[in-house]
Backbone:
């Protein structure tokens, strides 16, 4: 019997960053996809890496992060619209000065 931690570290917050790592459990997409087929030693090594990093993100924190990400996207879209309007105004001021 293995004394290594081979439990699935999934926190059901499956979103991936630019490095293709899950933002909930910090596994790579390949590690998540092939978890059931990985040998126990590999699972234990992945869990040790996650523990050394500080563990996984709790579901509550993950949900809060998702809400904040949604607000950020809305604000970024609004900011882009405002910048476009400002560029239009600056363009019309330059044309009026000519």
Residues:
């Amino acid at each position: 019997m293995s004394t290594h931690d081979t439990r699935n570290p999934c926190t059901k917050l499956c979103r991936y960053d630019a490095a293709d790592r899950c933002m909930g459990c910090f596994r790579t997409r390949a590690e998540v996809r092939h978890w059931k087929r990985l040998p126990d030693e590999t699972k234990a090594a992945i869990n040790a890496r996650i523990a050394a990093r500080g563990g996984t993100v709790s579901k509550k924190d993950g949900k809060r992060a998702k809400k904040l990400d949604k607000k950020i996207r809305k604000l970024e879209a609004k900011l882009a619209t405002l910048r476009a309007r400002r560029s239009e105004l600056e363009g019309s001021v330059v044309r009026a000065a000519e």
Notes: The mean pLDDT is 87.
